[in-house]
Amino acid sequence: MIAIEAVERAAQREEFLRLPWRLHGATPAWVPPLLSDQRRALDPRRGDYFKAGNTGACWLARRDGRAVGRIAAFRNEAHLRAHGDGAGFFGFFECESDAEVARPLLAAAEAWLRAAGLTTVRGPANFNIQEEAGVLLDGFDLAPMVGMAWTPPYYRDLLEQAGYTPCRDLRVYRCDWASEQREQSARLAKVARQVEERGRVRVRTLDLGDLPGAARHLAIVFAESWRDNWGHVPISEAEFLELYRRYRLLLVPELVLLADVDGEPAGVWVTMPDFNVPIKAIDGRLWPFGWWRLLRARHTVTRYRAMILGVRPKFRRLGLPLIFVQRCRDELARRGATLLELSWVLDDNHEVIAGIERFGGRCAQTLRLYGKDLR
């Protein structure tokens, strides 16, 4: 008999947070989350998601008193303002390979979203699709990079058996630039140099002395460049500053590129070291000494993830991505990088996909979002 209980007490929330260790801890590709980050994010009193006026709820599934699954549901006001589609999300979904556990968990999230006035549920997505999202369709042996999801093969079946149908596919591309032909690299450098020499374009790195200015630049570019992307949620200046606070110890200023054209914000490129490698080594626990090991690992990480690329529509014919790619390549080469991941990319973003493949990228994984009508 499966019992579903709402997570309302601190002890329940802690059990909710620690369940993935028992389900996936023996799987080599699984990377534990940072417990302290998730503890804060899911706390209705401290989490940034809840501070922004959003709502959510969490549940545990038990069999004979033992936790065997979990789920959360979210009404994201920023998403609703941007799209007006009546969509809510389920996320933080973890479950044993048992449809009798998954069905009542999903039903609890659906009932909550329906009561919150929503007509569609999508997921899995932690808060929204710009956080960890999707279930893996392939590439289960590859460890996810920072900010990306890993799920076992059976999650797809659990969702489809519960009446969910595919919404969108999110592609994960990886580039092993160490093996790329030198001729291609030289051609790219030449074209990028020609674009910069036209004089209108200025590409700079993150200035830690002007974080408000950088946040303003990011918010302007992100709002316009991602506006037509499916599921996009704008990120405000204050939210970008909060993201900096969260990742400030891990961020590499030389890999945050801001482009101006005639002095006007035009584009951004943000690449992060893949700190999932040291996070796995510390088992997701910063205390008592995990934080120190994490800081020391900054100089040894060789995997990187390009997580934001945006160019405002009126500047898209100026070749800014070429400059971003070349600048990023130069910095990664200086750091001894072996792998760059570009993730995620919507399956119908053919222009970006063609560009990635032209520079040697290959699709290494596909994540799928599912949906269900609640009416």
Write the layout of secondary structure elements.
Elements: E1 2-6, H1 10-24, H2 35-41, H3 48-51, E2 55-63, E3 66-75, H4 77-83, E4 87-95, H5 99-115, E5 120-123, E6 135-136, H6 155-161, E7 165-175, H7 182-197, E8 201-205, H8 211-225, H9 237-247, E9 256-261, E10 264-273, H10 276-281, H11 290-296, E11 303-311, H12 320-334, E12 339-346, H13 350-358, E13 362-373
Parallel strand pairs: 4-5, 11-12
Antiparallel strand pairs: 1-2, 2-3, 3-4, 5-13, 6-13, 7-12, 7-13, 8-9, 9-10, 10-11
Helix pairs in contact: 7-12, 8-9
Your description of this structure?
This protein has 375 residues and is an alpha+beta fold. It has 2 domains: 2-170, 3-Layer(aba) Sandwich (Aminopeptidase), CATH 3.40.630; 177-337, 3-Layer(aba) Sandwich (Aminopeptidase), CATH 3.40.630. Helices cover 36% and strands 27% of the residues. It is built from 13 helices and 13 strands. The chain has helices spanning 10-24, 35-41, 48-51, 77-83, 99-115, 155-161, 182-197, 211-225, 237-247, 276-281, 290-296, 320-334, 350-358, and strands at residues 2-6, 55-63, 66-75, 87-95, 120-123, 135-136, 165-175, 201-205, 256-261, 264-273, 303-311, 339-346, 362-373. Strands 1, 2, 3, 4, 5, 6, 7, 8, 9, 10, 11, 12 and 13 form a 13-stranded mixed β-sheet that branches. Strand 2 (55-63) and strand 3 form a beta hairpin. Helix 8 crosses helix 9. The longest helix is centred in the first third of the chain and has 17 residues, at 99-115. The protein is globular, with a radius of gyration of 21 Å. The mean pLDDT is 89.
